[in-house]
Amino acid sequence: MQNSVEISRLEKRFTRRDSNEVHRAIDNVSFSVSSNSFFTLLGPSGCGKTTTLRCLAGLESADSGEISMNGKSVFSADARRDISPEDRPIAMVPQSYGIWPHMKVFDNAAFPLRYGRKRSSRAEQKKRVGAMLEQVGLADYADRWSTQLSGGQQQRLALARALLCEPEVLLLDEPLSNLDAKLRSQLRGELRAFQQKFGVTTIYVTHDQGEALALSDTIVVMNRGRIEQIGSPSEIYDSPVSRFVADFVGSANLVPGVVDERAGGGAVDAKTSIGLLRCERYATPPAPPSAGQELHVCIRPEHVRVISSASEGEGPNRFPAKVKSTEYLGDRQELVVTVGDVVLRAHGDAHLDARPGDDVGVVLDPAWTVALWS
Ligand code: ATP
């Protein structure tokens, strides 16, 4: 598949006003975005997502690195090339939507066709804006003031206006963050449907891991200006490469340990305070794992199975445990159990008869147990 956007070794430094200290907002960031894909920058507040997006848009100039779009260089620190935002094949929807309150819905949407690089005749504007408002469900609102729209409608209007620019790349900065939870989940489905319908390469910024998992073809997890992991939603969730990713995306039990001497054979055996843990998943280690090397074992609660006793069945990663608390959720129970002095979150069958203080067993499914090197 062709790449629409390539970022290579991008770095952006800011100087803090109060202390004059230089701070790397993005540090040696490189990634490629396939054409027509939904690509998400995910990470906590301050990790550099918006700065990366602003560099792509041309609103911020990086201190080093390169950016190309559809095979053409739009930024090169070495060559001192920095194509202006209006000459890049992009449209950006900022967090606040950037809708003009003194204009009607139609005029807001028509703006790029009146003043932008896609200028067109009045008749053409009427036709295209009308068709686009129809597509985003705002045809009946064309003559209303944009201030009369709900949050969700404003978001759709901002999207309509961006798509009317016919961008090669659509940049979306936390577009759902101003909406309530119900609307957010409804619009998240719509966003993905629009992206597929228009086939536009989309780069999306969010700190919400649920949104990232639901919407994306590819996710980049960022932390303190650096990339921690790039992968599909299931790669990120099922095979995190660091404690940071395991903990930030979804919920994770993390148990410290060391590589056991018997490690090998397509799995890593970790000595932990629970006992020996077999990990059939692990990222390519920086160097071949050696006995005694420190690691963390990650296991998601849904892969910790609570059984009536550790002696029930056989196989690795099976331990006696004590129930600390239970929470009935209808389709399942969420339990907190202790194995020795290690506390684990687990999912159990809704009808499992387990109460705080009960002695039970747990199985940490080795196929989903991940060894993390950092
Ligand atoms: P959020 O989710 O809160 O928007 P973010 O991941 O998008 O966060 P950025 O806005 O990219 O993070 O900021 C990255 C870092 O760079 C932060 O530490 C921020 O304080 C700093 N930063 C961003 N813009 C500037 C600026 N204009 N001047 C100084 N520091 C800045």
UniProtKB/TrEMBL annotation:
InterPro entries hit by this protein: AAA+_ATPase, ABC_SmlMolc_Importer, ABC_transporter-like_ATP-bd, ABC_transporter-like_CS, Mo/tungstate-bd_C_term_dom, NA-bd_OB-fold, P-loop_NTPase, Transp-assoc_OB_typ2
Keywords in alphabetical order: ATP-binding, Nucleotide-binding, Transport
GO molecular-function term, one example from the UniProt record: ABC-type quaternary ammonium compound transporting activity
One GO cellular component term: ATP-binding cassette (ABC) transporter complex
Key word ATP-binding present: yes
N-terminal signal peptide: none
SMART domains: AAA
Enzyme class: translocase
UniProt xrefs under PROSITE patterns: ABC_TRANSPORTER_1, ABC_TRANSPORTER_2
EC number: 7.6.2.9
Domain of life: Bacteria
Keyword Nucleotide-binding applies: yes
Residue ranges of every copy of the ABC transporter domain listed in the record: 5-249
Record's protein name: ABC-type quaternary amine transporter
Source organism of the structure: Amycolatopsis acidicola
